[in-house]
Amino acid sequence: MKELFSNTRHAAFGLALGAMSFAVSGAQADVSFEGETVEWIIPFNEGGGSDRWARFYAPFLSEALPGKPTVAVINMPGAGSTRGANHFAQRVDPDGLTIFGSGGSTQLPYLLGDPRVEYEYSDWSVVLVSSTGGIVYSTPEISEAFAADPVATMAENIFLLGSQGATRLDLVPLLGFEMLGLDARPVFGISGRGEGRLMFERGEANIDWQTSSGYLSRVVPLVEQGLAAPLFSFGAVDADGDIVRDPTFPDIPTFVEILEKVTGEAPAGPEWEAWKAFFVAGFSAQKMVFLPDGTSDEIVAAYEAAFEEVVANADFIASSGKELGVYPQGTGETAEIQLKLGTTISEDTRGWVVNWLREKFNVDL
């Protein structure tokens, strides 16, 4: 696994990519998908944050791509999202008619060296990166007690959580729960966060978490009905690398705020370094769109231009905050930099987490 990248070198690489895109801008005019259907593979079930994200983007992308093709979201769950990613890496033609939506639960197995991973991010061309946040929520009764006295509330309750697996994006909340001293007992095997939410709605779990898009679209209505309430957000990363309140949920305390309240001190040590590294990797570049290995420069440029048009679209801007949250939507050089953030950690951090997974969940990578 590569060490953390050099911002200077990568910025230079990004500028080179920008120059290349400019050079082929004339050629991309010859690219047309008229009368075609673009399949957007999402490696999760319907109803989760990644599914909602892709379905929100799809009609805008259809209008922006040359020839205005139909953009159809194809759900391909399985093996904690690695099934869809492996399929994209091995069986997709580089003709621009299939794109892939990677999520945090696809990135983390890659970072951890999961043997089921048969894909390499550096082989693909990234054309969009969406940052996001995450919210942990529970029942209104537990949430009210937690806000007043988190230590007592955690001592008095056992928390059941539907989980895709400890090596997926659930690693971030599971490690956070461990640091808080919250007795979370994951029920492994769900295929997406939408299924985790349904477990909560059926009373089979009393704690859950969702990425911002899933929370806004599916959980906020539960909050409004008095059936759920937030405990904390994972937060956001500011320009100095500090965890601050999520701009989409400024009234909800962050994990760091709760941790400091519980422990009485600022977070530090290998647990904290691991949590922060995987939070940054899994949420700063939480959702990405790729074209497969071998895609021509002209097709890549056409998609880059289309997504740039989408994120500048007035209708997209007006509605994206409600659907996706208030987060950056990166293209071009920004997407390349965010890709590195989402797919690179230090060997020390990886080693610590692999050992923790082995000791905590008997997961041997």
What's the SSE blueprint?
Elements lengths: L6 H17 L13 E6 L6 H16 L5 E6 L6 H10 L6 E5 L1 H9 L12 E6 L3 E5 L1 H9 L1 H7 L2 E5 L7 H10 L3 E5 L4 H9 L5 E5 H13 L4 E5 L2 E2 L5 E2 L10 H9 L6 H15 L2 E5 L5 H16 L1 H11 L4 E2 L1 H12 L3 H15 L4
Parallel strand pairs: 1-2, 1-3, 6-7
Antiparallel strand pairs: 3-12, 4-12, 4-13, 5-8, 5-9, 10-11
Characterization of this structure:
It is a single chain. The chain has helices at residues 7-23, 49-64, 82-91, 104-112, 140-148, 150-156, 171-180, 193-201, 212-224, 255-263, 270-284, 297-312, 314-324, 332-343, 347-361; strands spanning 37-42, 70-75, 98-102, 125-130, 134-138, 159-163, 184-188, 207-211, 229-233, 236-237, 243-244, 287-291, 329-330. It is globular. It has 365 residues and is of the alpha/beta class. The protein contains 15 helices and 13 strands. The protein folds into 2 domains: 7-132 and 282-350, D-Maltodextrin-Binding Protein, domain 2 (3-Layer(aba) Sandwich); 134-279, Periplasmic binding protein-like II (D-Maltodextrin-Binding Protein, domain 2), CATH 3.40.190. The two termini are 14 Å apart.
